[in-house]
UniProtKB/TrEMBL annotation:
Residues 1-71 form the IstB-like ATP-binding domain. It comes from the Bacteria. GO terms for molecular function: ATP binding. Pfam families: IstB_IS21. This is IstB-like ATP binding protein. It comes from Thermosyntropha lipolytica DSM 11003.
Length: 78
């Protein structure tokens, strides 16, 4: 993301704040968001806006897709 894109995301989140739901999926922990957003202050504001009154579902576990792919290779259907 460049700065303009990060600012646009922040604007969208600000507009949605307390007006409706937002769902964001990511495999990158919040602590690593500064790797993709260039401005640390804006990144902190994004995370703050996202996590305020949020439900965070941490879904660590075995990959369902990997399991299905391995079953197909072995010739199993279930």
């Amino acid at each position: 993301f460049n700065r303009a894109q990060a600012e646009l995301l922040f604007h969208v989140l600000s507009e949605r704040n307390e007006r409706g739901s937002v769902i964001i999926t990511t495999n990158l922990e919040f602590s690593r968001w500064t790797e993709i957003f260039p401005d640390t202050m804006l990144t902190a504001a994004l995370i703050d806006r996202l996590t305020h009154r949020a439900y965070i579902l941490d879904m660590n576990g075995p990959s369902y897709r990997l399991e299905q792919r391995l079953k197909k290779r072995r010739g199993g259907d279930s």
